Structures
1.
Amino acid sequence: MRIPAHSVCTAVRDDIVAGVYERGSRLTEEVLARRYGVSRVPVREALRTLEAEGFVVTRRHAGACVAEPTEQEAADVLEMRTLLEPLGAARAAQRRTEAHLKVLRGLVRLGQERARKGNSEDLRSLGGWFHETLAQACGSPSLTSMLTQLRHKIAWMYAVEPPVSPVESWAEHGAIVDAVARGDGERARALTALHAERAADAHRLRFSVAGERVRTSQHAVNMSGLRH
């Protein structure tokens, strides 16, 4: 059975974000095909997609390599998120379904409960699911895709400090959902903008100007690294 290229792409992207492949390291089709148990065809397609997304670059005499974003590029990615997430929330207020609201409210209830108990690992996962669901609720596949890609990139480029007050952070999530439920796009936009700005302050680059990785954690980095 042929493995879809998008599945290979997801696997390679996740490993890049997790630091399995260091910034600047080569990504040979043969090695990747062997690692993921596929032929070189889906690997080749996956690398093209990842290059378009900015995770991979093609270098002369070296082929495909993990990209090495600069500090300015990393700052731009974080700024784009702070601009696009509020837009997504405003759209969600007009286009969300009852199913989206049910999931969002359930996540807020769980998040608030875990925040009171101080379970930080659960909060990371719940926060990611919250923002992913909010992005899906915007009713725009292209915007949802952009927000998801930005979250992947930010998880790759940044380590995130836990919020000083998780209870307050989840209260902000709850207020955003309330605005979305009422169809108040402007309030949803404003609340999400404030939330995104506060979250941005907790992000710390994983690499220096010289390209050295910052030793922030021994744990693998994944989407949960952006939970707040």
2.
Amino acid sequence: MDSKHVSGNGVHLQESVQIAAKILVVGHFAVGKTTFIGTLSEIPPLRTEETMTQAGAEIDDLKGVRGKTTTTVAMDFGRLTLSERLVLYLFGTPGQQRFVQVWEDMSRGALGALVLVDPERLEESFAVMDLVEKYGIPFAIAVNRFDGQPNRSDEELREALDLLPETPVVTCDARDEKSSANALVALVRYLQNRSS
């Protein structure tokens, strides 16, 4: 949105107003949210990761997860400037059910959510998608491709996740800046189309 003001000589000048948008980066445990935000953030990301202990082994299911030694216990935060007029503030939520109370506060003021999913653990995404829908947050799906996984078609993914036809589904690698940025751009375009 542009605003006008009058300079000392009476000439009207255009002044660009920057728009800030709060975007949630959500997904089940160990899907790559912290990596995604760290890959894209133009500032050093805020991370609240703690070392996983033997005490949490029975709570946090590591089946299908390789090399995970830490877990987010509050949130991740980063910032990404998409254009001169649009800045995204990225808030990553913990993926475990025991942190679900964090969602209510995190969802306030969120323009949209990018739901990261692991194509080999799709059933773990249902609880997260239920929360996004519960709080009425428009969302897009980003399929985080891990090394050595077979490709699934968009149709298979849409059917497995029971998505509406208009819900965007994109593929990304949370470690890759370009593909992660493309996933966020797909969400932003979807949000823009909904509001026009």
3.
Amino acid sequence: MTSTVPALGTLTAEGSALQAVLLDMDGTLVDTEGFWWDVETEVFASLGHTLDDAWRHIVVGGPMTRSAGFLIEATGADIGLDELTVRLNDAFESRIDHALPLMPGAARLLAELAEHEIPTALVSASHRRIIDRVLPVLGAEYFALSVAGDEVPRTKPHPDPYLAAAAGLGADPVRCAVVEDTVTGVTAAEAAGCQVVAVPSVGPITPAARRTVVPSLDVVDLPFLRGLMTDLR
């Protein structure tokens, strides 16, 4: 976990109870959920197997070990989990070297949070090697810290990554706003006790208590995120 944590300054700013914003990466800030499926399809094709498109919703948003393990079992491919993980990460890195599009509204939201000195963390199920390739494109200066899926005992859908990010920022998870794009990520954030903004990328996500569903990041700004904490003031 990398960290350059600034002093917290949002608890009393303009009366807001918002202490930090924790952001998922793939499908939330960068338009890469489709990249992962394309890479998985290509790697398994090289092994002589065709992936069922229905599996896409099963593997999206989760840790590499879960998605890769599922695909090995589903296809019967003769490859070990460790070797497959390396091949998938290698292929993904090659893909993002050619293009890494941001999601609509991502650059504007990150700049706004930085302008107002809101402590912000990147929290991803992707491995550290992938996060470190993406951070320069997003702007590493926008994040006080980042948490990778291979740096916590249990990654999403468990709460560990979001609890680690909140602790690293010195924030109460209940006073953190999380932005996620998958059910797996939403489950992790809610288990950590955070307020969640869901921006569905692949599968549908339904509204629920402490969960707000929006069509894109274009509608998410600092007043919106602070408004999620109204009942905590």
4.
Amino acid sequence: MTADRLVVGTSGNISVRSGDLVAVTPSGVDYDDLQVADIPVVNLDGDVVEGDLKPTSELPMHLTAYREHDAGAVVHTHSLNATALSLLRDEVPAVHYQLADFGGPVRVAEYATFGTPELAQSMSKALTDRTGCILRNHGTVTIADSLPKAYNRARQLEWLCELWLTAKRIGDPSLLSDEEMARCAELFSGYGQQSR
């Protein structure tokens, strides 16, 4: 995530679910220093069942994504362009058909203090019928059935926000219609290698 400029320092976090257990990045550990043994494993109530390090402060957000949105993996970033867009908009406008992979325009969740149940609920509301959202004045959350797919969505979301911000500097970006977005969403449902 650092090399892809999705986080700086120890910001952001990821998790992956296996049954009723979740492996999640620990709080405040530099990604360059992170070892497999450093990854805490928690149950869906947030109790640590394996590992010595404290889980990320955003654990309530991760657990909410698992319990309320049936996620298999969660990626939370502090990416620049998405966070900048959150200061200006209530959603990522339909600037590209790639938004169909998120279920439509990506919503911006209302601001709440990091690590709080209020932030988890704000995120959950913005994630309704979506696979990603932006947290106002904070960062992004993407979900998927696998960690590689959730991570790819985080990268795509940052690119979509950069696309809108770049075009907006010059003028008013042309947007895709709701009908076209619905058509693309249908096409995305069968996109790629389904047997993998």
